[in-house]
Design a protein that fits this description.
about 200 residues, mainly alpha, Tetracycline Repressor, domain 2, about 75% helix, elongated, Homeodomain-like_sf, Tet_transcr_reg_TetR-rel_C_sf
Length: about 200
């Protein structure tokens, strides 16, 4: 009957819950990591967020809207994280170090990497999500272009996505020297960060 120790008491206590919408979006991202875009449901998200099912459908009129807004939240968060990775880079060697570390941390940043690939996969079937993938690509290439110029940035961006995917799927991690060699080759004759 709503006693403090009864099941469901936590849900009733949260009458004023200003962060509920964000918690639902974060829970949707968790479900996208574990079950993929094809496996997300309102029920799974509600259970993960510890909110009533009606609360999810109140904030998001459809599953497509929930998924799109969750992916938009991911892109916004990842954009800031990506920008921060390069904040201290001043030399070509530092740039290569950051890029090698980015690839090698793919498995340890599993959640973020999986969400990136889930977004790309979902965008293949849902043209409405392509704007998010294009936004992410524009941003990541703009960050890289500050160090390399636009043509090399485009080539490097594609290489990084492939290397991260391979790192996630590999039974044995690739030696760091191989990753470094691939990145160095993609950089070509770029002398160092462009100011």
């Amino acid at each position: 009957m709503g006693a403090a120790g009864s099941p469901g008491a936590a849900r009733r206590v949260r009458r004023h819950d200003p962060e509920r919408r964000e918690r639902i979006l974060d829970s949707a991202l968790d479900v996208l990591v574990t079950d993929g875009a094809a496996g997300i449901t309102h029920r799974k998200v509600a259970a993960r967020a510890d909110v009533p099912l009606g609360s999810v459908t109140y904030h998001f009129s459809s599953l497509a809207e929930l998924q799109a807004q969750a992916f938009a939240r991911y892109v916004a968060q990842r954009t800031v994280e990506f920008e921060d990775l390069f904040s201290g880079v001043g030399t070509r060697e530092e740039l290569v170090d950051v890029l090698v570390e980015l690839v090698r941390q793919g498995p340890s940043r599993h959640r973020s990497a999986v969400l990136g690939f889930e977004l790309h996969l979902a965008a293949l079937r849902n043209p409405g999500l392509r704007a998010l993938t294009q936004e992410w690509t524009r941003h990541s290439r703009a960050v890289l272009a500050r160090f390399t110029g636009p043509e090399v940035a485009a080539r490097l961006d594609a290489l990084l996505e492939g290397l991260i995917l391979h790192a996630l799927l590999a039974a044995e991690p690739e030696p760091p020297q191989a990753t470094r060699a691939a990145i160095t080759q993609a950089l070509g004759t770029v002398a160092g960060p462009e100011q």
